Amino acid sequence: MNWIEKELEFLADASLERSLRTSSPVSEAPGYTVREERRLFNLSSNDYLGLSGHPAIIEAMREKLLTEGAGSGASRLVTGNRPPYHRLEEELAYWQNYEAALVFANGYMANSGVIAALVGRGDVVFSDQWNHASIVDGISLSRAEHARYRHKDMPHLRALLHKYRDKRRKLIVTDAVFSMDGDQAPLRELVALKREYGAMLMVDEAHSGGIYGKHGEGLCHELAIQNDVDIHMGTFSKSFGVYGAYICGSRTLIRWLVNKARPLIYSTALPPAVVAGVSEALVVVQGEHWRREKLFALSMLFRSLLGASGFTIGEGDSPIVPLIIGDNDMALRFSGALEDEGIAAAAIRPPTVPDGTARIRFSLSAAHTEKELRDAAARIRNIGLGLGMVKP
Ligand code: PMP
Q: Ranges for the Aminotransferase class I/classII large domain (predicted)?
């Protein structure tokens, strides 16, 4: 086993070693986290709508915990398919305007399981080069050909669709909002290409669900293209503030997945209390519009403050705001300086992002206030000045 230590040293030397640190929530201040007894302004969570501490969601979970117990005890196909699942799946399908929905334990399992259930040897998956790792792993598991197209490059995708036009099944898959850059996929163009080449289209709304769309349905609804999306995937771990994921599609698709999606078949069902909490979160996501409005206003403010300071930040309007640094070590130093200044924001390095694009990934929440973000932006500017990244 000596090789592991050598490999770890190699990672550490390249400023690429990762380690686990404990972060605790602050119940009276949802926009903060506590690390090593220090309270930090949390700019590194995916709790975009600030729902993880929502009293109605917590109460729904507590109630179900008392009646249904702690765990589900088995996979959904055995005896783990407790009553809260049925209600949630009906509500999800109605919300998304699809025939049916299927809940998975998490987004990683949904993506990897669904892709491997839909394609196999002799098939091809066209996937944006910056799609989430769970999509990439699903393609590897499926044994289908992986046709990776350059980020959002539609002429490149078209050339690949042409090259692989004789493959048996074709699946185009994309994140709706990319997790590390916060930019949007060209969904309308993807729909046109899917039609032209007779491919299936799968969209991962992990970072857009709850945020875009009149009732938080996601970007596909906002752009009114959801009827052309064959497989709609979303998560409950981000905007919903809870845990889990779902797929919406036709009844036939869902029937197929119940029979073929291995993470659903061979893994224990979510605890019933989690499923009940998600149902309550769905009510909040649809009803509390002010959270979306506030989030967009905060995002525009924060983006304009960082841009005005001279930082290179990602495009778009999403609450994911990457501050591009480039060098791994510099990104770590920046993140350390942020922590010294009372801000939690992770340095994201390769292989999560491409080489030479290490960054700080800021993510905003409706739990934040304008004043907190203005203060944070001023501190971030000072760090940039100190590290020589921006000019006075
Ligand atoms: N898809 C995307 C785009 C993601 O960012 C993530 C999580 N970071 C996932 C899927 C996986 O979801 P989960 O955390 O529920 O496993």
A: 40-380
